[in-house]
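Researcher: Here's the sequence for the chain we discussed earlier.
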Amino acid sequence: MTTRGAMTLETLRAPGLAVERSLELSGQWFNELCLWLQSPIGELGNIGWPMVLIPEIVDSRYRLGDTALQVYQRVEWSGAVPRREFAAAAHVEWVSSRGGEFETGIATRARLGDEDLARSLLVARMAGPLESYGRRDLPARPEIDVASLSRRRTLVVDEASIRHFASLAGTRYPVHEDERYAWAQGYPTILVQGLLLFIIQLHYAGVGPTGRGEMWFRRAVPAGSLLESCQSTTEPTLWAMRLVGGGDIAAIARIASSRPASGEG
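Model: Thanks. This is the structure I predict for it:
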């Protein structure tokens, strides 16, 4: 096992790492993040929460092992990312182990004074010997009627975009950056990050002042794949990222948010 893998297991081992710290977003990284999210400099709005609440942003010790693959992500927000200092917290909620691999749920939260601003849950699967603890909290993936899907956008995420996102998010994993490593895992090239797909889908769906978005990841998406973002015509809160070549659904999202009042930006 690599040193990084051993550190990951130590972080996740019961009772699991729990941290709280003050966070103030500023500097070149923050400005680049604003530009990437197509927000005014210094104003991330609500679309920035999935990135800000990455466990590794709260504390670098939450960096997962090389074999980690994202299974699920949820973000709930009730306000914009603050332009001043706020409290960020993270903790390991649960670990569920089976057959030499395990899933873990890592929760993060942002508060400004006594006000809850946003919460996130990331679930990842990886190899390793770890005992289970806590209650496995992974919502059932919604059933989606493929016939109800209507294409809203078509997109391709290339290798340059994947590597730029890894640098911006600070989440450097070999399957997203090292082509030889990806080949060794049975993939044709590096993979698109689950978080990147989630943020793209939130952008397409639109986010209001308050809301909730969650995404279930069904299959890997190699760099350069032609994707279509589809919305269910029978359940408008449901979205799917579909691989155009074979028609397979790579991810399913449920996104619900309020809309700005008339006159608001």
